[in-house]
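Narrative summary of target 7.
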Amino acid sequence: MAAFPLMLPGTSRPPKLVVFDLDHTLIACDATILWTEFLYEKKIVTDPIWRQYDRDMVKSYAKGVLDIRDFCRKHAGAFRSIPEEKLHALAQEFAKKKIAPLIFPDGKKWVKNALQANIPACVLSASAAFIVKPIAKLFGLTDAMGIELAFKDGFCTGEIVGIPTFQEGKVERLSQRLAEAGIGFEDVLFFTDSRNDLPLAERAGYTVCVNPDAVLESSARKNGWKVAEWKLSLRTQMTAQVDARACRKLRLFEAKALPLKPIAGSVPAFE
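Modeled conformation, tokenized:
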């Protein structure tokens, strides 16, 4: 069993659970938006309204004011006519063909660090669970939580089941998991990129901010959290740049997913 390369601050012990956000943390894109584009590519949808919903979502998410239940209802309209079994099959294809090339090498390395040290690791995302779970498997993770959407008569309704894994909801959902495992928040190491994850970032034993937005970066400086700059390989970056130009109106690849200027006091490679 390999030693985990990071001890929790003020202690000589590693975390008991490593939690990874997904979009723009483990992967260099927003899986929800890329999923919409995948549906267009498959000719499953053609109406431009779905792209408009995604654009509106990006703006609200960046401001920290997204109504997640309203967005899920609207977004599900793009795949509401797809039978559940086919939807899951499409999600697996999507993960392998569209997401796999956009995995941050550093993200994969840190998942591997946890698994080799025999430390449980999970993905905790505000994307839909049926999308999140096959993506998590690309990292060798079977423990993954996303927003659970309801299915009725074999089709997705877009209604959220239980507590959505978004903002404070991530804390609530993880709290349930920690209670079952007998682990406290102080023993959690959390990786994220977004201000929307501040409720969990502030509860975790330690937080690593990956290519953070301005609000999260400011909090990182105040709290002494590490700031990590993760990049795609040069070859993948070139491909991503092409895709970004093709999907510019969607902001599929936000600036933070591309190379960043070093941040004073950060740990670029986070070794």
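The first helix runs from residue 31 to 41.
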